[in-house]
């Protein structure tokens, strides 16, 4: 592995840890959900260097669909609709 890829991987790992820390320490639920989506997005970028198929799946399901579902459910719970 080249030094550039190693440096980018370390930078992404530190960014993931920072976003995970924000997820844990956030006072608002929406902030925590966005930071959790950011962790997944950083993971998909990290996978881009080694496994493209895993990166595309992680980006689509992990950071995209999961974050959307979190906000959808949060809206339904806060809205109080009884379906």
Task: Please characterize this protein's 3D structure.
- With 83 residues, the chain is mostly helical.
- It has one domain.
- It is built from three helices and no strands.
- It has helices at residues 3-25, 29-47, 52-79.
- Helix 2 (29-47) runs antiparallel to helix 3.
- It starts with a helix and ends with a helix.
- The model has no long low-confidence stretch (mean pLDDT 84).
Q: Which terms summarize this structure?
A:
mainly alpha, transmembrane, cell membrane, flat, DUF4040 domain-containing protein, 83 residues, transmembrane helix, membrane
What is the gist of this entry?
Helix content is 84%, strand content 0%. The chain is mainly alpha-helical and 83 residues long. It has one domain (3-79).
- End-to-end span in angstroms? 54 Å
The oligomeric status of these chains comes to: single chain
Provide the gyration radius in Å.
Answer: 15 Å
Low-confidence stretches: none
The outline comes out as: flat
Domains counted in the coordinates: how many? 1
Distinct helical segment count: 3
The helix/strand order is HHH
């Amino acid at each position: 592995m080249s030094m550039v890829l190693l440096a980018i991987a370390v930078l992404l790992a530190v960014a993931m840890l920072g976003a995970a820390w924000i997820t844990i320490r956030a006072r608002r639920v929406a902030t925590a959900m966005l930071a959790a989506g950011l962790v997944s997005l950083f993971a998909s970028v990290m996978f881009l260097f080694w496994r493209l198929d895993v990166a595309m799946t992680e980006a689509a399901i992990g950071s995209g669909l999961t974050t959307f579902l979190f906000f959808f459910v949060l809206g339904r719970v806060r809205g109080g609709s009884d379906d």
